[in-house]
Design brief:
Blueprint: E1 7-15, H1 17-23, H2 28-36, E2 40-46, E3 49-55, E4 61-66, E5 71-74, E6 82-90, E7 93-99, E8 106-112, E9 115-122, E10 125-133
Antiparallel strand pairs: 1-2, 1-10, 2-3, 3-4, 5-6, 6-7, 7-8, 8-9, 9-10
Length: about 130
């Protein structure tokens, strides 16, 4: 059975994020700002319906989806692209595949104790973030 992702999560670490943003071809000014941010995650998880709000002082990004159903994701708040996104459970991990211009793009969320882990992937670059539940 999938884990419960509900809660408010504060970032405690952010490794290799600039390389991930470079792989997305995000311009250098935005990359510099983004690497200084410590965004929070506010997650509402009700069965197969999940809303993930990424909140920061610079920009917010909301993802509202149903697990297992492909949808068109507008990433104008991230790298100004659109992609076909599918999110599924693989055991206790929430796995996202984003099909579009960038090869190997996606992410994985999982919980260990009171920590939410996020691995971001794009074009061979991998960034790892950890959030602590508040």
């Amino acid at each position: 059975m999938p884990v419960d992702l509900n809660g408010y999560w504060k970032m405690i670490s952010n490794d290799n994020f600039e390389e991930y943003l470079k792989a997305l071809d995000v311009n250098v000014a935005i990359r510099k700002i983004a690497t200084l941010l410590k965004p929070d995650k506010d997650i509402t998880h009700d069965g197969d319906h999940i809303i993930i709000k990424t909140l920061s002082t610079f920009k917010n990004y909301n993802m509202d989806f149903h697990v297992g159903k492909e949808f068109e994701e507008d990433l104008s708040g991230v790298d100004d692209r659109k992609c076909k996104t599918t999110i599924t459970w693989e055991g206790d991990k929430l796995v996202c595949v984003q099909k579009g211009e960038i090869e190997g793009r996606g992410w994985t969320h999982w919980v260990e104790g009171d920590e939410l882990h996020l691995e971001l992937r794009a074009a061979g670059a991998v960034s790892k973030q950890i959030f602590k539940k508040t």
